[in-house]
Specification:
heterodimer; A: 160 residues; alpha+beta; Beta-Lactamase; 3 helices; 40% helix; B: 204 residues; alpha/beta; eight-stranded mixed sheet; 5 helices; 8 strands; globular
Chain lengths: 160, 204
Amino acid sequence: MPSFPQLVEEDVLRLDEELRGLLAQSEATIALLIDAAGFLIGSSGDTRQFDLTTIAALAAGAFMANQTIAGLVSETHFNSLYQQGEQFSLFVLAVNDQALLVVIFQAHLGVGLVKYYAQPAAQRICRQLQIAHARKPDASLDLSEVNLADPRGLFRRKLD
Amino acid sequence: MAIINQATKELQVKIVYYGPAMGGKTTNLVQVHDHVQTAAGHKGKLVSLATSSDRTLFFDFLPIEAMSIKGFKTKFQLYTVPGQVIYNTTRQLVLRGVDGIVFVADSQYEKMAENVESLANLEGNLKTLKLALANIPCVLQYNKRDLPNAAPVEYMDFLLNNRELQVPAFSSTAHLCEGVFESLNMITRLLLHKFISQPASQYA
């Protein structure tokens, strides 16, 4: 599985701009960029009303399950997923092998409009991720602050 | 694989709890969710995609944020896989992008064949993702040590940890939260060690 590129300031600004642009054009509520393994990479819109971390994990799982179904019906892939709700609908589109674009929009809006604007946005996001891949930032994490020999570890149990 | 965002200073990693059916994978996540000390907002909801009889159908998911390291927020996503044999395709999906594995084995004598089969299944599924268990941080957890028919730890080591490079193994009684945090802390430590010993660019 190809890995997701490290993002620097320039990438994040560019990706945010794409998500905001998509929302403005499609009148959708929220746009998310997620990794195919379920990590949330970026978001735009009124993000307080939903649990975006969980949505990212579930959307990636649902999308990947659909890819498996595609294989079972002799399709190479299904490149999008649409769920229509009564209040909100969901559209997920593959950006590339590593990333997905998730759009949540009010159900009375047609999915056609969202699809129309999401496709070119996904292509532009894909190009930016290619730039990030090509850059290969080599900065490693400075973990000198962490005492890895500390038996208490990072996660501590509450005292009952 | 892990996500490193230099701009927002975030590190996100995925830990998968794997093992035979009814071995205690979901119980591990429930215990972490119920007992972990976190700052407000650092622990997400525990989401379970389960059948009506509480058997895991797709996965359980718990997002949790640990301490900040030199300004980097470390976010851990804990997943379980469904243990039942028929859900192998689902297990492959959940393993996608895995960074670390906690293998939860059932200590009961009569479950040893299932433990061995599940470990072999894990290795096979990793192979389909072009990964090898030897290259992924992994911890063994011998669960249900409180049961009278629990096999000796040495026997479980012989069956499950009998390899050139042994992995850390912990005894646990997950429903009492014994051994749960020890396993989680060891896998996070192994993961962070890997970040130190390899350039981060290999990860993201």
